Amino acid sequence: MGFYDLSVEQTNGEMLSMKEFEGKVVMVVNTATGCGFTPHYKDIERIYETYHDKGFEVVDVPCNQFAGQTPGNDEEIHEFCQLNYNTQFPQMKKTDVNGENATELFKYLKSQKGFEGFGKGPAALAMGVMLKKIDKDYKNNPEIKWNFTKFIIDRQGNVVARFEPTADMKKVEECVASLI
After folding, report:
1. Cβ–Cβ < 8 Å for 103, 60
2. What is the dihedral sign for C-alpha 167, 142, 67, 32?
3. Has residue 4 been placed in a domain?
4. CATH code, domain carrying 153
5. Count of other CB atoms within 10 angstroms of residue 131
6. How far is CA 14 from CA 10, 19, 101, 110, 148, in A?
7. pLDDT digits (tens, 9 = 90+) for 73-112
8. Residue 63 annotated among the catalytic residues of the structure
9. Distance between CA 24 and CA 129 in Å, rounded?
10. Which of 15, 30, 112, 142 has its Cα between 20 and 30 A from that of 162?
11. Whole-angstrom distance, CA of residue 29 vs CA of residue 159
């Protein structure tokens, strides 16, 4: 099974096949509307606008598994994103990215790129301290650690990078640009 064999549920209940993105560079990201990282929407939208015409797509998967930071239904989440960040990329149905109810898409992404750390800096340190209280073994499992974990898939369907929410968005853009 590969990336193009997977699908994710859209807000209208229909499944979106990743095969529709064959030959494109894709960012799959789990998002939240009430998180300290929510301003990442601004950068994701800017990157989308910059590279979309060159073959870049974003698959936004809202998730409420991290401190309940994605309250509301799909319509409310979509409205929030459009009003506050003018998002134009497709937004999927709110779903789980970890645990027994995790979507197959995220199970696959995690199997391809595990957790490699939060990097350096105050946000990285704070995330490490917080997660150690939740999961003492967080460093040794591939689970999504928090909102706004980004996976980058190249034009051949390979998962080439995983960026934790603490990653500098300039590095994320550099990765996307290198694949365009």
Report:
1. no
2. positive
3. no
4. 3.40.30.10
5. 18
6. 5, 15, 18, 24, 24
7. 999 999 999 999 999 999 999 999 999 999 999 999 999 9
8. no
9. 37
10. 15
11. 13
Which tokens in the block code for residue 87? 């998002």
Q: Would 113 be classed as within a structural domain? A: yes
Each residue of 120-168: pLDDT tens digit? Answer: 888 888 988 988 888 888 888 899 999 999 999 999 999 999 999 999 9
- 13 assigned to some structural domain: no
Give the C-alpha separation, 76 to 92, whole Å.
Answer: 13
Q: What letter would DSSP give residue 92?
A: B
The rounded mean pLDDT for the chain is 94
- CB-based burial of residue 120 (10 Å sphere; 0-12 exposed, 13-18 middle, 19+ buried)? exposed
Structure tokens at 113: 């790129």
H-type alpha helices, 5-138: 40-51, 74-85, 104-112, 122-134
Query: Count of CB atoms within 10 A of residue 180's CB?
Result: 13
The DSSP call for residue 68 is T
Q: Which domain holds residue 150?
A: 25-179
**122 assigned to some structural domain:** yes
CA distance 27 to 11: 18
Please report where in the chains the tokens 């199997």 appear, as a residue. 111
CB distance 43 to 170 below 8 Å = no
Choose, from 35, 63, 81, 175, the residue flagged as catalytic.
35
